[in-house]
Amino acid sequence: MAELMSNADNFWLSMDEPTNLMVITGFMEFKKPLDFNRLYATIDSRLASFPRFQRKIVQPKSGLGVPNWEADKHFDLRSHLQRIALPAPGDKTELQAMIANLTVAPLDPHKPLWQVHLIENYADGCVLFFRIHHCITDGIAGIYLLLSMADQDPDAPWPKSQPQKKPKPLSLGTLLPIDSIINTATKTFNTAEKLGRQAIKELEKSISDPAHLKQLGKQYGCIPTDFASVLSKYMIMSSDPNSAFKGKLGVRKRVAWTEPMSLDKIKTVGRAISTATLNDVLIATVTGAMRRYLKSRNTRVNELDLRVTVPVNIRKPGTEFELGNKFSLVFLPLPVHLKDPILRLKEVKRRMDRLKTSPDPLINFALLSVMGYLPPVLAKRASAFFGNKASGVLTNVPGPRQPLYLAGQKIENFMFWVPRSGKIGLGISIFSYDGKVTVGVASDEGLMPDPEILLEGFEDEFNSLLTLVQSGKVYDEPLVLHDRYQEARSTAGTIAMTEIGARKSQASCQALTKNGHPCKNRALADSDYCRVHHQQGAEETQLQDVAKIMRELTR
């Protein structure tokens, strides 16, 4: 039976570019070879049993509208599970090169858009490499699906031939406290979806009459000032500069990852510095590594903040195995300019804490919904508009606390990467599993041909933090506030105040009364409006910024 593709899934399908395929990738590492027949049976019963993994994409004959998911009458698991050997000497360098090559190979559009490669001859064991197109599902559900193939017992029986009714969710770690960011978004998932759907339907009206967007927000329960202020922030926000992490992309990519590191060591650092979370410590360490790498490329970093986009899960509990894209994004500015590792960690914590109470995830999900309803050409423009604001994508996902087994063999390590859009050439992934953390990097070969250097910087930065903590040299210094949006807003405010000062002769309120006549009251000293109309004027200004963004997206 055919399934109409959702607009959100169609959006990620339309984002496919030769320079950045919209494909989620990942691997599992094993110290011993896998039994291929048992592996085949496991994938057949636990992964391929999901209907979407046996469906191909069929575009409408008219060429208009969204495509359908239709059953592939010729589906054959052997076309999706391939067995290859790693060239000698079969070490990590060879494995990274092979994965990089597999990453850039387009998926066959005439078949279900996923592949699994059993890479043999890796040391004494093997690696299982996965590729799943973003239109099938997002990274969170994808990881749940992959881990659902595993068992908690090495002696578990062979999987049954019939499909599982519903995989049992695994107990995941607590590495990613960013989940607390989206409490509001989780409760209002349907609200955001409705808002996005309605917004695109009435786009023209919203542009010509910003007050209409205000009414739309009230209708669906979204606070209009929050909605408008977040979008206004994006309008003010400048694009990140081109660097080793961002610029003109090529087809070739590179991948690298660290050896697993102890979670206990990360906790030690976090407990010593302002109760920083595991997430804060890791992001601060990534920031320091980026600073080191840019300095090695003779890039000035003294005044530099760089943003990363962070995917945020907004799935309701119990829906982890529902395929499709149900996530939001937030922009996280990284204080690359800060040299001191302690101050850098404190500043990262401050910025993360601010994000946790912001409306950004909900608003951004509504924006993604809007873009899901745009034609592909406009969707790409919209994606570029927002994507160019950042220099990288940073994902941090908690994996199972306990060891898992697949096809009878222990999973020694697990790593994944999500795709990037626009001019972003850097993807950083953090994954915790069995008491350890692994950090992976995917980069554009033309921009960053040596991602292993960035990871060496990560290890050096963390060791520096750990040494400071263990030596007791943790000090209480004031936080350094350095946020480019705050600076831009302050600058804009200064300009506005100058303009207001130049118009002092005009001290009348600029609002209109209910009868449509000019207000005769005097404006406040810091405003174009009197006390009665001040808030109304501020909202209208914000909504005009929203309309401006909408024009940019559809230009």
Explain this structure to me?
The chain has 555 residues and is of the alpha+beta class. The protein is built from 17 helices and 17 strands. Helix 1 crosses helix 13 and helix 10 crosses helix 11. The protein has 3 domains: 168 residues, Chloramphenicol acetyltransferase-like domain (Chloramphenicol Acetyltransferase, 2-Layer Sandwich); 219 residues, Chloramphenicol Acetyltransferase, CATH 3.30.559; 52 residues, no CATH class. It is globular. Helix content is 39%, strand content 17%. The strands form 4 sheets. Strands 8, 9, 10, 11, 12, 16 and 17 form a 7-stranded mixed sheet that branches. A 5-stranded mixed sheet has the order 5-6-7-2-15, sandwiched between helices.
| Uncertain residue segments | 172-193, 195-204, 216-224, 478-506
CATH homologous superfamily annotation of the largest domain: Nonribosomal peptide synthetase, condensation domain
Structural class: alpha+beta
Major sheet, described briefly?
Answer: 7 strands, mixed
Query: What sort of overall outline do the alpha carbons produce when their principal axes are compared?
Result: globular
Oligomer: single chain
Q: Indicate the CATH class of the largest domain.
A: Alpha Beta
CATH architecture identity of the largest domain: 2-Layer Sandwich
- Termini, distance in Å? 38 Å
Helix content: 25-40%
Overall pLDDT: 79
Number of strands: 17
